[in-house]
Amino acid sequence: MSQHYRQDNPSKCKVKPGDTGPAYTLANPLKTEPDGTVDPASVDLSGVKGVTKEQQKLATNLLISTIKTLPQWDDINKAKADGFQSIGDGLTGEEHLLHWDWINDNDIFDPSHPESLVYKVDRATGTKTLEAAMFILPKQYTFDNLPPINSPLVQFHYHDNLCFSAATPTDGPMVRGLTDPQGNCRPPLTKFDPNVQVHVWIRPNDCGPFAALLGVGAGQIKNGATRSCVHSHTRLGL
Fold first, then answer.
1. 3-class secondary structure per residue, the chain
2. So what's the pLDDT on residue 194?
3. Structural domain spans, the chain
4. Which of 81, 110, 186, 236 is the most buried (most CB within 10 A)?
5. Tens digits of residue pLDDT in 150-161
């Protein structure tokens, strides 16, 4: 296995030096399909130090099933018709749509029942391309009580600094600001519940198929941990 430190362009990834810890390279590069999604046949997640065979198997199964299932919501209008609601963060270049009533149920890591969808927003054209699911776990899970899939390959995070407006008859809660230095939102805005969550990217991501967002809106990881980065060296499939 190969261990190295990030060499990416910080301006591209919106990462400051020291924001991430050691990065790892998958032993076998992922490939992409002509449409830009990851080729499920290329998924081999071996090569990451500190990951057990069981954790690797769980991560592999989740990634492959997500790649195969998620494209049913390629059309963002279908996602909205199926109950997903934008939180209004498209100006960041990534727009999250949440299915609010799926968060605190008993269904976790189900690509046909994802708590959130993530779309890449082309701010020049307005085009929105589905690129990830964000699986949000119910409240009984914390950083000290995570499912077995948690590992250096699959790093959980949460958001405790976002301030949301109240839902309306037509829209769900919307991001309208960040907490103040004391960690509070200015009323009537309220904080997002700090449910732990993880992204699963079906398109290439600089820090791998389970990376958290980087830069603004990156979320928080466990105290004392460093933000992991797993290089997948994704390339076009032949």
1. CEEECCCCCHHHHCCCCCCEEEEEECCCCCEECCCCCECHHHCCCCCCCCCCHHHHHHHHHHHHHHHHHHHHHCCHHHHHHCCCEECCCHHHCEEEEECHHHCCCCCCCCCCCCCEEEEEECCCCCCEEEEEEEEECCCCCCCCCCCCCCCCCCCCEECCCEEECCCCCCCCCCEEEECCCCCCCCCCCEECCCCCEEEEECCCCCCCCCCCCCCCCCCECCCCCCEEEEECCCEECC
2. 84
3. 2-6+32-159+194-233
4. 110
5. 998 998 998 888
